[in-house]
Design brief:
With about 70 residues, the protein is of the alpha+beta class. The chain is built from one helix and five strands. It has one helix spanning about 35-50, and strands at about 1-10, 15-20, 25, 55-60, 65-70. A five-stranded mixed beta sheet has the order 2-3-1-5-4, covered by helices on one side. It starts with a strand and ends with a strand.
Length: about 70
């Protein structure tokens, strides 16, 4: 399964908004440096989707705020 995620790092909140069709907006508290925001994103999405963090992989957008994430069940 593939989902598309727009990330808002350095936010005052940690929140996931779903827009349907596999599209999400995720607010993160971490800064987008040294992979901190990506690590937080994987942890937040794993809790939201109810899958282990190892099931999520960033296919595209590792250094961008628009990401394509693959979920392996």
């Amino acid at each position: 399964m593939i989902i598309h995620v727009k990330v808002k790092p350095n936010s005052s909140k940690r929140e996931v908004e779903s827009f349907g069709g596999g599209r999400y907006l995720v607010y993160l508290k971490s800064a987008p440096e040294n992979d901190k925001a990506n690590i937080e994103l994987i942890n937040v999405l794993s809790k939201e989707l109810g899958v282990p963090p190892k099931s999520l992989h960033i296919n595209f957008g590792r250094t961008s705020d628009e990401k394509v994430i693959e979920i392996k069940f």
